[in-house]
Amino acid sequence: MKNTKVHSFLELLNKTHKAEWEASPSIQGASAWLSDLIEFLFPNNRLNRYSTYEGILKKNQIDLENMLLSYLDPKDYDIEHSVTTFYDDLETIYNNLRRDAIKIFESDPAATSVNEVVVTYPGFYAIAVYRIANKLSLLGIPVLPRVLTELAHGKTGIDIHPNATIGVPFFIDHGTGIVIGSTAVIGNNVSIYQGVTLGALQVSKQLSNIKRHPTVEDNVIIYARTTILGGNTVIGRDSIIGGSVFLTRSVKAYSNVFNTHQLRIDSKEQLV
């Protein structure tokens, strides 16, 4: 005998799944496309012959176009223009990432080479995915940019919204627990350490079109576990923000901001 309640649920499930499937790119497809693109830009496992470069790039371009066609209506989005523009700007993305990698190498005494940064540093990987996703977001592509940055978030623990604005070069050290909100603006030559949050003072759907996250100007260093909140909060250029600082107001250029809590250590060891 047919269970009417279960049948009704299955129909609802099918209808919802169909609507969501049609409005979203394949997670597996997005991951494969991203991996192929990063491997093309920064080959690790093998060095492609120069004669194959054009073919590899063309395949990646076709994969992106097919992925967009799988969930976007060409009547609403100029997919061909978006794909062409993205790959026209790929050289700029690559050059910016090289500058990011050099900045990380020059800033981290533990780094032995730029290649080590590119191959092993989670901060560089998160920045690379962000720059790719940000370009797609600027082209008006929905959903896919967020899928890409969430793939990086899951892999590195670094959460950068694709709509954030981040200058060049950008240095992330260690990185785990970093959160950079969608309306954050970060200038050039900025360094951020693990556990830093550039967030909103409050979370409300009514604030969707308002700048909610801080602005960090050029040459700023923000050390570990610091939280900076608010769309009107500006960290002035060439400032240093120490570890475990909580800020909800602006800081003038060339400022040093440190937490003033005192640490006391009592040793029971007896001197001989």
From TrEMBL:
The keyword Ligase does not apply. Keywords: Acyltransferase, Amino-acid biosynthesis, Transferase. Signal peptide: none annotated. GO terms for biological process: amino acid biosynthetic process. The keyword Amino-acid biosynthesis applies. One of its GO terms (molecular function) is acyltransferase activity. This is Serine O-acetyltransferase. It comes from Sporocytophaga myxococcoides.
